[in-house]
## 1
Amino acid sequence: MSENDGRKVVNAEEILDKIERGEPVDCNNIDIQGDLELSPHYLLKLKSENELTTYVTSSIQIKNSIICGNLNFDNTIFLSYLDFEGTCFGGRVSFSNAKFHYSARFSSKERKTSFKKYANFQDATFLDFANFENTSFEKDANFNYARFKDVVFFKKAKFCQTADFGGAEFEKHASFKEANFNAKAYFTGVNFGTYLQDLDFRNGSQDNLGAVNFVNSKFFDYVNFSKSNFNGDPNFTNASFEAEANFLMANFFGDTSFMNAIFKNRAIFTHSKFYRYIALDSRYRVGIHTKDVYFIGVEFNNSADFSRGVIFFGDVKFYNSKFGGKALFRDCRFCGISDFSDCEFYKDAFFRKAVFNKTATFWGSRFYEDAYFNHASFYDNINLKESRFKRFDVEWTSIKDALNHNDNDRAVYLSMIKNFKDLGYFDDADNCIYMYREKFFNRIDPCDWLSRIIQYGVKLRNPFILILLSSTFLILMTYKYETGDLHIVLAELILIGIFLPIFVVVLARKLIR
């Protein structure tokens, strides 16, 4: 044993000898030279199912130290606790297929741990509390198919290279709060457990923000949550996704929060299912900044809240999605194309004060309850072809320019005319009738020409002008010719027989309704 920068230098063999004798290992502020790997002749090795399993009965506590060599405890069952708080692992670390019966502390809030090389926890099982808080993984971190039976913390953990949690199971609370993922992160097929009721995490920290907590976490590269199951209340509040975020076919069984989350690239939620409430923003802050967002074929079985200032900077696709609860898009801004084709809205849909900068497509969508587009702004087209709605509450001044394009057929206009009448917006209904007749006007038919002259009987302006002209003509004819003259009879016929009745009918139609 010697001194190194104030630390005692200990050979790895001394640590291994204690473990093999079943003695507790309690070290602090030391340098361990050599590899930590139990001897092949270690007595507590049993062969089962063609695998050699090692049993460690010693408690292992190595704090604030440096392990210079590799550490290999593959296929090892630890029957006592482990504590590596504040320790630096200089070599490769492998706990593949290991089982931890008691708490495994690899870091803490006060003492940071670092893995300088590859860290392998594939197929590891943690039966008790596991703590990786403030841990720095400087190379790849492999937690493939790891099983966490109790609480696990990765709060403020830093993953410098690939972080792979594919197929992992978190039966209780898992916290990745303020974690940084600097490279690709894989959570494919992960099962996140239920909401934690017991707040005793045994290290003084309390974090009761859902079954899985990614609050303030940052993903600087591609992240994949496809086919994952979120059984509790997943919380992604203030999370930042710098690259593509993939939630393909993910299941969200609890209340889901993406409030103030930032998506700077594509966000894919295709064929995902939200069984309860989902929220993507808070009241006063801009929530989503994104390139393209895909919610294709998604099922929202409860309220879906995208309101209060959410901004989609790229295209957003909700194609063939189902909204089982209220669809809330109030004050939402769609900077790119918004595609709601073939969507089904089973409850009220709120698009009040929403802004559509480009084409808004609702082709084939079904609104089984009321759809509110009051004070919405459409700066491009809206496509309502083959859509069905019970009540489409929108002002004509907001939608008139967006409605007037080739994708909307006669059925769309007729549905909107009926809708405006049912709402009691008779002036809006008249304006829609006028646009409908103008759009599908037959320029060969003389009757349509006459209808066009009198503005299809929905506006007073032209009939009133015609009354004035014909009255002027009658006065001139009376002044010039005697009573009974053919010119006077013709003027009376035009005024009394044609234009005056038309004006009276149009005026009465507007007054009696």
## 2
Amino acid sequence: MAAGNSTPIRIGQAKSHQRGGLSAISRKGGLASGMQNRRILSLAIVVLAIAAAIALRSSAGRSSAGKATKPGDVTEARVAADAATGNNWLLNGRTFDAKHFSPLQQINDKNIGGLGLAWYMDIDGAMGVVSEPIVADGVIYLSAPQSKVYAVDAASGKLLWKFDPKVRLDQAINGSYSARTNGGVAVWNGKVYVGTGDCRLIAIDAATAKQVWEATVCEPSQTGITGAPHVAKGKILMGYNGSDDGVRGALIAYDAETGKEVWRFWTVPGDPSKPFETKALEMAAKTWSGEGWWRVGGGDVWNAITYDDATGLVIFGTAGVGVDYGEFSFIKATGDRLFGECIIAVNADTGEYVWHYQTGTEGIHSENNHILMADLVLNGEKRHVAMTAPKNGFFYVLDAKTGKLLSAKPLVKVVWASAIDLQTGRAVLVPPSQGGGRQWTVHNWWPMSYSSLTGLVYIPTTDRGAGTKAAVEAGEGGEGLFGRLIGWDPVAQSARWSVEEEIAVNGGVLSTAGNLVFQGQGTGEFTAYAADTGKKVWSIKTGSAIESIPVTFSVNGEQYVITPAGWGSGSRLFAPARTMATPESKRGPARLYSFKLGANMPFPYPHVVIPPVPKPPEQKVSQEIIRKGEKLYGTFVCDGCHSPGLDGSGAWVLDGAVPDLRYMPPEVHKDWYQIVLGGSHWDKGMPGFADPPKFAFPHAKMTVQDADAIHAYVIDGAWKAYKGEQEKAPNAAASMHR
């Protein structure tokens, strides 16, 4: 795709608040007036472009080393120089070790009561923002859904530029899903890098917002990119998602200057009738069995990528193996199935395999998440280690050079295993007859943070009430789940403190030398805790679910803490809404909030209106048809975008989000066949299932009878929601008059 197909927007075209707003040029009059206005508009664009470049260079100012910089001036030398000062947040995780820790302490547990809102910026779109901001020399670089990128003045919140890569939604079901969220950008040597939902990696000039190059990372007819790019030795590391959809995973390194592919590490073997790409894959293939096993793909590398500059290794985690819908669900691949559910180390220069450790176990779906590096003293010996907490709920400490397992303990009371055998590295499984065989997601992708000052790793987790009577469910949707932020001692292998949280799924964690831990929650509360004790020392209710990653930096001698807000993440599409947000917080706006000491800007609490469920159409169908529709809702992966059990966004929202089917207006019910079978909304990411995308459904096609059954299930769910509201209304009115 040519650079001209992407859209950079300059100053004045988005809403930020420290005061400021939109400017407009009106068009009036006839031909002569129109020509004059076009000249004015052209001149204005030139002026704005010059202003943007000046503003960026002014914002960039001088580096922490005192040398003049260019916008996006991030290099290995600068990362090393900034590590001790913390003035910037140059990488995902701030430093290469991905600790998500800042040495800044101007804001601390003693004075945090004076923290106030410095500015905020509204972000357009119906989905919230989950990405981790990158901050370099007074400029914030932030990605949003559909891979849009913003450059923002860090001191004022003024928009400097916006880049829109014009992501296509009509190539793959998984690509449509992928485009709805974006995990962040990388910044390196004057460029900003972003992955897209249609499988592209794009380099953007940090000063001009113009596209420099793009590369195709994955097959857009299969999947897309949701995670952030990472940097290692002048290379941009990029993966993609799709393990649950039969996509074969890989991690790819690109030359940061040219976009040329340097190496590609496939994480699982391909068709065994063809030559294996590497000796490592030849070895891995021996751990697979089952007819057509290679067709299920797996092992994607979408998020957990860390470059360990101490060893020169890229250490990354893979997702699982197996598809639970459609035709791929009938393929039963058995064995260890390497390198699915593994932590893998490769040479950063060549991509050559060095070691792996498998955290997963056949039959228990898991996925590896954030990996951070640290030096620990274990049994009197200093060890350089990799620490990680996969979905399965154990906290692992591995030797960074060899991958040797040093310790593994459960973060909460898990049900699938009683321990990890340190000699074999394998789990001691709990039999299904004794309550094992399944495990809810304990730690998802949101990053942890490690403070060497306290010696604790701060981990956002999901726990389960001890008295919950419902059976344990795999994944994110079970009953009795709640959030728990844990201060974990990796040496003692136990929790020093933990805090219970109302919502099961909450945001990433930031710790600082000011003895503080910051985290946003699904309720919309942004909170700070004392890092040593877990005592809550500050909070503010934003009104928007927070599932992003807070960062901190210093500009003009003042420390700022910023957090994106708004109900986002791909989980909002394939997990029940109740596990991620409240009815109010899931409707809050998408914003970027900035806080500093002494700031007193009034907080813009959103006015949230919960829309009523429209009265559904009458229907007279049997329960058998409704149950058939419920099953087909999963077969055709409707629950992968519209949420399990129809527990979706709680509104009929179309502007880039996926609408809640219970809120369908009458005209959509009438157009059901045209949309669901005919694909009239494919350009918006909704395919027609009479002839669905071939990768996900090679042979299966939805019939009219199938569509009718799914429609009956949706209408039944809408009636339940509608009647539930009607029953609550009199009770709510009565309570108001008591």
## 3
Amino acid sequence: MCQGHLLCDFLMNRLISYTYLILWGIIRWVIVRIIFLLITIKLVVIAFFYFQLPPMEILLDARDRGSVTFKDANGINFAWRGKQFESSLRSETISPALKHAIISVEDRRFNRHFGVSPRGILGAIRINLSEGRGPFEGHGGSTITQQVAKLLCLLQSKDRTELQCRRPTLARKILEIPFAIAMEIKYSKAEILSIYLNRAYLGSGSYGFEAAAQRYFGRSAKDVSIAESAMLAGLLKAPTRFAPTNNLIKAQDRAALVLKLMKKEGYLSISETNFALKNPAILSANAKEQTGGYFADWIMLDAPKQLTLSTSEDVIISTTFDSKIQLDIELGVQEVFRKYVKDSSKSEVAVVVMSKDGQVRAMLGGRAIDGGRGKFNRAVQAFRQPGSAFKPFVYAAALDQGYSPKFLIIDKPITLEVKGSRPYSPKNYTGEFLGPVDLTEALAVSINTVAVQLANLVGLKRVRAIARDFGIRSEIGYGPAIALGSSEVNLLELTSAYAGFLSGGRSIVPIGWTDLRLRGEDTMLMSVNRNNSKQVIDQYAAGALVYMLREAVVTGTGKRAQIDNWEVAGKTGTTQGAKDAWFVGFTSEYVMGVWMGYDDNTSLEGVTGGGLPAEVWANCMTRILEGRKPTGLPMISPEEYTKRGIQDDREMRQDAGNDQLSSRSLFKRFLKSLFND
């Protein structure tokens, strides 16, 4: 028992004090050791990351695949695919304005901290919570060094996707700190900034500021102006949303904010800021036009896949593309559609232009002319019935066998027995029959019954062979309806076949690219073979066919394709039910094919190949030929054709090699003796 209250209170107080001291000592002992343990762990983690970090140069390229840059016929870049990158940029060589813009908008204390900014992290957490988000959602408060840690995925990119690396989590934030410190120990500030400059994604497939500067402004990041620097730095927040190729106004507004931050940090004077605000950055001519997208997509499929779609290198492809001709066809199509097609119409169009040697100069795969990247390319991916645009193959086969352009066939109702199918009775578009007509008139006004009869005379097998030899790679049917274009083709192969008619009857392979190289190297990896052409029909037969196609434009269904002072040859095509309308034709310099129709095979109301497609053709070709001196077509008139004596020569060769033609040849000789051809 305690004697006296004062003594009891004293003893109790001493006991409590000693207890508190003991407990505090234990707690302090634990805390100190926990802190020591955490520091030890942190140092171990920092050391681990330090020794994991490779030399700076290895970290510059962030891509998992390479890129493809397309050069036009004049050697100017016009399109890009894949992930663009240029590793030559360093923080020491970058434009000072761009360096200051990046630091101003991303990390104004970059040169003063040691990789982490506690004030920035706490400020970002406060802002995120005040805006109703999670503490690590939205603003990150990360330094440039921490952003590099995120871009490097903490060196775990092989085990994680890019999305997983960028996901804001507490664990990632915690690991970013020792990783950032390890980088600050391993690398200089200049090296850390160099990694950032090369790995940051800046929209439109561009990785790094050098690739972005070239993509948007056509110049090096070493030479960009203050306004351009501000626009590039502004892309870091949201590359796709602020990309100037997507929305230039939005990119300029973002750049204005960056300029004000640069002024606040003392990097710009008032006059420099005002000048840059009044003269915002704009896209280079090539970036602004966004032209040639359909063409580039075609080359990505046409060139070797290991150097395009699957490339791990940076490939430069030289092409036959002509940006001026591309603009001509885009403007021509827009004008015709604006005049004759309702705004609500969903009808589509495709255009291909090539020189007579097969070098494709321009391509439009649809009404959407904003580059075409990734869009359905109707010039090469759509397979549609060509209708009467296929008939020249029938006439080519006939001319090559010796038939004269003046050879007479009776236009009359006919019915053909087709093995394994119902009898075939072709009808003319007009529903009328003209009686005896020569081949020139029959082709010009597109008489169906004559084309079918002629195909049977020369042989359907021969017609198919001629079409294949001229470059039709699509499957061709076997019935008599093939004479009227019942087999599906694409616009590119049909246009290149017409180039063969113009080129003296030789097969023409469409050429889009000429050579491939790796960026920075002069050695050519691959070039296209231009020596694989062969003679399909006799050059005199080809000259006669050009004459007949010329008559189709002068007197026949292609009248709307006429161009002042220029000789034009071509053929219209309209399929059954008017689901497709075509005009393919040429001058002495260029061959152009035009297709119109609906993607869902809806019928075109009141449209035939001799209508809007011929109108589009004439409008585009007039623009292309502007300023050029007219030259004539390599035609041979029926009279000249007969004088060449080609008929007798052809008959002798065909008679010797094909017994089925003997009766026809004897009958021809009999008619010739009576009526002199």
## 4
Amino acid sequence: MLSHLRSGSKRTKAIWLIVTIATVFTFLIGFSFIGSMGRDPSMSARQSGAYGEIDGQKVTREMWNGALASAKENFKQRFGSEPVDRDLKSVEQQAWRNLVSQQLLARQASKAGLKATDNDVIVGMRTNPPSIIYTAPAFQTDGKFDPQKYQAALRNPNIDWSPFEAQVREEMPVRKLQERLMSSLKLCEGELREGWRVRYERMSAVVGQVPPADSGSSPGSDAELQRMFEKYRTRMSTPARTELEVLALPIRYSPDEVKAAMETAKGLYERARKGEDWDQLVKDYSEGPNADHGGLVPRFMNPMELGPIGQTIAAHQPGDVLDPYRENGQVMIFRIVDPKSDSTAKPPYPGAVKLAQLVIKLRAGSESLRAQYQEAKHLAERAKSVGLGRAATEKGLATAKTGFFDMNNMPQQLYAAPEASDWGMSHRKGEVSQVFQGSDEFLIAQVAAQHAAGAPAKDEVADQLKPIADVEHRVELAKSRADQVGAAVRSGAKLEEAASRVGLTSFAVSMTRAQADPRVNAMPEVQGALWGAKPGQTVGPIRTPGGWFFGRVDVVSTPSDSLWNDQVKGQITTDILSRRQRAFFDGYIAELRQKAKIQDSRSAFTGNWDRGPPARRTSAERLVLAAGIGRARRGRRAGRFVALDLVRDLPLGLPEFADGLAEPAGHLRQLTRAEQDQHDQQDDEHLATTEIEHVASSGLRSPQGSSCSRLRSLPTRTLTSARSESHACWMSGGPPR
């Protein structure tokens, strides 16, 4: 073969070269394509380390952790406790939405050529620092942000502000884009004057209502329903909306798992009954919300709304602790808060109670969870072929429809897995979701219907038309009474007298255009007629879904021009612009989201039951420990540092892989097979004093306060076990990335 090539002409050699290159290229492409066929998206996400993609840009672990930490801190600042259970799921979803919006805006800012200058960063650090600064304990006084402390810290040359400066530099283009968008909204003098009238012009009037008949129903003919649809169609307009068909698969627990949780709960119940401090027990053991505040449920409840446990609560006295009660994947111990010891527990109405709870979660084994996840996963794959409803029926299960919802109104069926709502808004009709994990269930969704923003189609609201027609029919039955009132008014009787003749009572209202009386707030026809009438004029009958209305305007008081000052102008300007900017910005973000290709892969990192049994693996997933040694200058001081970057790598068998490595990788065998010996002998090895920088989310560290550690020398890139990684993290004082 080789002799043939050597003896051939240049043309023959060229042909063979082309054939060789084509063959290699074909094999590479073929292997890549075949390797990607049937690959689990969750596995792909874990291998890449991406928590999702936004228009092709990967969402890294650092990006997601930063967004989540900020959302958790906001929740803690607002409610005074860490989010748990469903609150945590909601916080995670809000963090994801904020991250998506931030990345979409960053892309638009880049297209607009917006950049951050050094002066922008300086001004930004002084006037609008990152949100984490406002919640850092170092800058708090009496629980509030203290600008003086922050400004003093800014002037301290020994504090390293570079991480925060980098964050401001990264966020600055988005801030500039937002300022450019918001500054495009203007107000003229006429709009301010109109806003002034809407807020301060007040009307006093007398209103009479003829309510609909107590009974009666419409025939429900097609013509009648069509008329109702045409009449009320514009009132049913909504934003873009989606309807999902969902299948909830409750997590199953073994008798031993249930027994373990119940025994734990019973032990805590006995301790509480014997007088042990309830708040401390909840703080130490509860896995439910408000654990730092005695597990207090922040609202009054009617025991009858709690189902079976409600009867038990109603039979006990304030201060009692109830027996452990299991519901789905948790065991709860309730305590009825005694108003004598807590003034906030005084019931606002008879029978109302305020509860505190101690929650113990059931823990399903990893093998059980893995098996249940695989069952749900196979069912989802089946649903892609035959539909979710049929796939569920084949297993003896039932699905449910969510009803139509938009981005701001999540249906109750998705509270356990709020990420399913965003998935539904961004996928097409008929598509089936991945398996979402809630606190007590696995959830699968299929897009049942989608509609663009605007008025709905008739079939979308078909089930609402008949009740509307029935109401209209009962209003029509009350027309005779309304005609009697109208005739009396036309004959010269006052509205109050005319209403009393048919057994009705009129009522007085006082309202502005901005704030209507609650009794006519849902009747725009009545409000419009009253504001259009002159003082002393009686209007009506006015037909509404709430019956027939009459009204007489008594007084319309116009505010004095002396109230038209700069302070009022500023308040009105701020109010109008804030509402207009919010509506504009929300619409802008919604449009960007609609056009973007967003992939949420966070579910790939929520559990390990979808990764296959660990005992059956031929190789274990490892961590790559990349150590880069360099020099950094902070303030006036320079020092060596080690940057540890932990990322996921492909599954590799470390001892087997080490056998084929070159001499520099011989250190790998020592790490994986004689790791403990190295730990014992590390003081005898060559040690280099290095400074480990760790900027924690809870505050700042100056160079003098940085954690220092002596680390043994490592190759610039090597593979190590999780145990080595944990040891390095322990020495550095920082969490793994």
